[in-house]
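Provenance and format

Records in this collection were gathered into a single text stream. Each protein contributes a sequence line and a token line. The two records reproduced below are adjacent in the stream.
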Amino acid sequence: MPQTADEPDAVAVRTWCSLALDALGREREAIDAINVYPVADGDTGTNLYLTVESAAAAVEAVFAAHETGTTVPSTADAVRAMAHGALIGARGNSGTILAQLLRGMAGVLAGGTGAERLRLALARAAASAREAVAHPVEGTVLTVADAAAAAAGRVPDGARATAVAQAAYEGARTALVQTPRQLAVLGRAGVVDAGGRGLVAVLGCLVEAVSGRAPERLHEAPAAPAPFPADGGDCPAADDPQGGPAFEVIYLLEADDEAVERLRTRLDRLGDSLVVVGGDGLWNVHVHVDDAGAAVEAGVEAGRPYRIRITHFAADRVHARPEPAQRAVVVVVPGDGLGGLCAEAGATTVLARPGEPPASGELVDAIRRAHAREVVLLPNDGDLRHTAAAAAEQARAAGIRVALIPTRAAVQGIAALAVHEPDRSFDEDVVAMTAAAGATRYAELAVAERQSWTMAGICQAGDILGLIDGDVAVIGEDVPTTARKVLDRMLAAGGELVTLVLGEDVPDTLADELEGHVREGYLAVDTVVYGGGHQCAPLLIGVE
């Protein structure tokens, strides 16, 4: 290519991205095949390819903006576009680290080019990538990047950029061969680090971009050549990635530096393989966790997460599982009494303990425990809508078809479960269950904890509050009187069936009293009563 070795410019950056994309496209399957760390999910080559694809597209967009002019973009514009494209398109652990490597290089090359700048750029890339990883491990792409930077640093002053790029490539190749001796899981599998192999390919393309000549390529090795003892020989011990967290969570995050530091600390407690890259208000967050919802919630507290991707690992670690059922229902219940009732109806239940709403991880576990291809999720609490949505998204990422019906109360869930028919089509079943839930008005009785203003007036501590559709409608002194007033308010708008769910501390005589009240005042209305067991509210009411 017509590019001088001493001054790699925007054209060289464009060429580098194009060559790297082609190289990773050729090697993607081979790299996927040797992916055993940190999770043996066989996607490192694919993730690297997608990351570079985004970087290349961003550079092409910069060039496209100059098509009507007579000049090409500046080197600074090209490298910044490359780094930004990689950041927003980074996939997986390896892609996120590569994005930080490119960002580190861009920060130096944006200020000038030439051999010395390239040497500094490689050093900064390796350092920034290592800083981005919460717990760096030797024998990975970080080790390969360090070796590339060190080799480039040994090139004599006055050498050309080509010599620096070539030295970095050779240093990376040498380090890659040693990775199975540094990381036990690689030694046992008889493979080099997949991310490191991808980086070697990218550096080889850098050599070609600045020199116009392709370097000697890394010979493709079989997936398991077993060059070291099967037990890893003298490799340092490493945790078995097969026993790691169940989910990979990745999202872009708009947040300031201080909030990101707090986020790092929180995510480090939640899981492993934590990599946070970026800066200037935009970050790419990657972590492996068991509670994906908590990882996303941490991002919400830090700033604005978006482009959230959640991948389920656990299915790859489970063997000899029974054939899934066609359809199941997962229900959140406020007490053990309703839990037993819903379980008898065939639902998988999640208990919402007083003051302890279930996390998204609990809901995902329940969806998996239901072991069905299709699942209907009933959260039965308006405050759980975001948690339930996150759980549904995680389950969908694992290949389970999930329909979330936004039930706001347990009595709506009971109504939905009553019309559930697993033999009809999934869509028809969901529509019928949604219609039944939506046709059910809900109420509950609660005890006021303190004096406060309500829509029904001022209540005092100890008063009985009757809440209809979430708002205080009645203030009373005792449960029976307040319950009758609530029923009258609800039935004034019509109804065919009243559902009463009694808490364990409510006397059984209350059910008879309220049934009689409905029978005497509303002749065409039926009443069903369930024992709720230990639940927060003394009484739940539904009117269909």
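Adjacent record:
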Amino acid sequence: MTQASPYSLLFDPVKIGPVTARNRFYQVPHCNGMGHVRPRAEAANRAMKAEGGWAVVSTQEAEIHPTSDLSPFAENRIWDARDIPALRLITDAVHDKGSLAAIELVHNGNHAQNLLTRGPIFAPSDMSLSYALPKQARAMDKCDIRDFRRWHRDAALRARDAGFDIIYVYAGHNMTLAQHFMLPHMNQRSDEYGGSLENRVRLTRELLEDTREAVGDDCAVAFRFAVDEMLGADGMQAAEEGRAVVEMLKDLPDLWDVNVCEWANDSMTTRFQPQDGYQNDYISFVKKVVGDKPVVGVGRLTSPDLMVSMVRKGIVDLIGAARPSIADPFLPKKIEEGRIDEIRECIGCNICVSADTQGVPIRCTQNPTMGEEWRRGWHPEKIAPKGREEAALVVGGGPAGLECALQLARRGYAVTLAEAGPELGGRVTRESALPGLGAWKRVADYRLNELRQRGNVDLFTDSPLDADAVAELGIPNVFIATGAKWRRDGIGRTTLRSPPRIAPDAAIYTPDDIMAGSLPPKGRIAIYDDDQIYIAGVLAEKLVQEGYEVGLITPGLMVSTWTDLTLEQHRVQSRLIEMGVSLHVTRQLTALDAGSMRVACTYSGCEEDIPCDAALLVTERHRETALYEALKARGDLTTLDLIGDAAMPALIADAVYHGHLAARSFEADPAEVDRNLFRREITDLSEETQP
């Protein structure tokens, strides 16, 4: 990059204690569902970030002791020396790409469940766990504190021996013992570790001092700290105790990694926080306090102009990212090479988070290669060239069709994409027009921008095709991405055994109707949500904004149950209540008449009528497979593949993934595709090992 570039500032090296980052791009610690269970996958995932230009690449939480066991979630572990070889895979892979490797040491206190180890659970004071489990955490005595400090110091030494360049002390996200000691509602102690803020910070100070003494000559010491709990006067605030902590500890770390608390605030979705850099108001004081110590901050940073502005304003020295580095591991390189329009911008949907909360390897709506670096050997910027075939037809311009077409084009095939409707994007375009989902349009925009610049791609809208029309095109390789339509009969996961009785004169609408602009006459509308994902809650918001009186009925214990996995369910339910939506949980649809919806309690079976002028049924989707079946019956194509929602209605992330998989699998050896689908990391039992 030349000095004339407006972004050259982002590629200045930054000294962090005894080490130096080659630029200002810093992948902060984030979970990826691999950890100690899948160490090769973990290493390949982190290495991809380093290859993409992130100067510092961090692990996820690394448990320092069996009393901080997060099973069944696959974090990193550094319990003893036997964990070093797995961690060395990460550092070697990251160093091989020219980046620094950072490790986030953690003891999770009452956030740890110890389900595997059955060890004691520690906290500053006697208290419940942060999970609803039939056990409690015990207050640490002085011996426990000494043990904890020793465990942390020993873990730092092991981290150094594993090759890490930066070692974290972690006090954030309301998940760590160090932070728990700082918070007065968790720390009721009356000794030198409780009471005043200085006493509550004592343990963190000792951890920083211990870590610096143990490894400070060789490794940088980073401190990850949540400066604000986002609870107002009920919690730590950046302008008060948060600032005071920074002032107390400013000289101890080599690096300040600052954010807000809890995880649901630090990783807020665009549905509830559309602004990039939304944490700046909370963290901007830190650099002024710590002086020449480098500061890294986050906030779903995707715009290089915003990044430069943050550095020039003295908010941060390093551009921190978790989700943007997931959506595009090559974001730094694309900025450096002037390829800004090729960045896959994070849409803030938290599909990455949902993978972690389900205990599975990471995935991403924008980047279908995320998590597949080792298992399938996928690279976000590289793909195998075409084989013998020359051309392919993709029918359907939704997320699966767009991704499939793009990757086929990148492989070198002549690609024709035919969309029956007037615009490309499919469900992405429709859903991104709903309240809070505007950023989701980036999924279509990125792919359309890439497709429109390629000479081997023809895009057609308003082009419905039947089997004869496909045959007339003479393209032997066809990918069907015709999507799915929402059902109108009320049948879903809880009504399958007992389908609801629906009167002929009942006014019924589906999400497809609402998104197409076909709205009922103004009045009362009852939304029955047996899908329980996100769409019903978003549609409820839209209908309130349109002036309807809205009731949302669901068999779930709460509305939009699945969004608990994306850290936003509490916000969904709060917003609907604030908007005046009448909520009816644990209610199953039994009948629908012209003026009312009859529902039954899912526990007692007691029925009640909910008055409504129209019903919006959000249950299941019918796959649109007529064209696929017709072409299959003809049997005259070389390739016929059903992809996306037409194959399996699911999330947009799944549709993108399936489109990507189809394009990569085209002309590949089926046996090789199957092997990669189930590639596993299996423990080697060929030699007996010592316990």
